[in-house]
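Kindly review this protein for my students:
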Amino acid sequence: MVENQTEWMKAAAVSESLKYANLQPVAAADCQDEVIAFFNELSKTAPAAALGGKQPDANFFFQE
């Protein structure tokens, strides 16, 4: 998939690098403040259309 999006990234290299990425997934509902802060920063440089013209509302966060 990554090779289809970026010519200079090779799947094998990305796959190998994930071993060292220290990814710790967290449900968006458990880090709403951080997600909103991210969108606030993104909105400073990204075109409004990239975010649908608004910040995410409560429906953005999946609740079990």
